[in-house]
Amino acid sequence: MTAAVVVFPGSNCEHDAVSGLELAGTTAELVWHTETDLSRFDLVVLPGGFAHGDYLRPGALARISPVMDAVGAFARRGGPVVGICNGFQVLTEAGLLPGALQKNNHLTFNCQDAVVEVASSRSVLTSGVAVHTRLSIPINHFSGSYVCTQETLRELHDNDQVVLRYVENPNGSLDDIAGISNIQGNVVGLMPHPERACSTLLGSTDGLVLLQALVGAAQLA
């Protein structure tokens, strides 16, 4: 199995993602944003950072990078796709996930550990992880407050698409949302960084729980 870790100009968490995925049991390859074919990969990760310098708004330019057509095609085939932090922003801008990420409610950059609770086990990122499991995972963002219409929020609830919730909301996200999936559960976006919680040297291995679930789901896809 091989994971594609997409690199945009301005990405800065790609090597962390590769390391985390390898600890979770798969090989990973950095893929430049001009790539147009991801069919040789088993899963795709859009890492954190500041794709295209966050010009216009986070993810707005990344969504028109050539690779995003390939990411969309990969997702439509049922392939597992996960966007972490800036990657989550890119997925919403590209229309692969509903809603949007806006500036934190206190208008400051968040860099801290956050406890999240698993809200659904039907996504590729939480497959096999018990609902209500609590994990301590770092966050590192300025535009991490999830927003959507009330109609979309009802759909997220009805379709069990809320994947993770903050135990103590650090950024004003609607409904304490830290991560969501598409209806099929194969595309997931989350603001916390599981790749930064994969070793006791980093203070926690809780992120490995999610990445191992992702790798396991990709093996079954």
Distinctive features:
5 helices; two-stranded antiparallel ribbon; alpha/beta; Rossmann fold; globular; 221 residues; single chain; 9-stranded mixed beta sheet; 11 strands; 24% helix
What does this structure look like?
This protein has one domain (2-220): Class I glutamine amidotransferase (GATase) domain (Rossmann fold, 3-Layer(aba) Sandwich), CATH 3.40.50.880. Helices cover 24% and strands 26% of the residues. It is built from five helices and eleven strands; from the N terminus they run βαββαβαββββαβββα. It has helices at residues 14-23, 67-76, 86-93, 150-158, 206-220, and strands at 2-7, 27-32, 43-46, 81-84, 100-102, 110-118, 134-141, 145-147, 162-166, 177-181, 187-190. The strands form two sheets. It has a nine-stranded mixed sheet with strand order 2-1-3-4-11-10-9-6-7, with helices on both faces. A two-stranded antiparallel sheet has the order 5-8. The protein starts with a strand and ends with a helix.
- Total number of distinct structural domains: 1
Nearest-integer average pLDDT? 97
The helix count comes to 5
Helix content: 10-25%
Q: What is the CATH third-level topology name?
A: Rossmann fold
**Order of helices and strands, N to C?**
EHEEHEHEEEEHEEEH
What's the CATH first level?
Answer: Alpha Beta
Strand sequence of the main sheet, in spatial order?
A: 2-1-3-4-11-10-9-6-7
Q: What's the CATH architecture name?
A: 3-Layer(aba) Sandwich
Structural class: alpha/beta
Shape: globular
CATH superfamily: Class I glutamine amidotransferase (GATase) domain
Cα radius of gyration in angstroms: 15 Å
Query: Which spans have pLDDT < 50 for at least 5 consecutive residues?
Result: none
Range of strand content: 25-35%
Largest sheet: 9 strands, mixed
Q: Based on DSSP secondary structure assignment, what is the total number of beta strands?
A: 11
> What distance separates the N and C termini?
11 Å
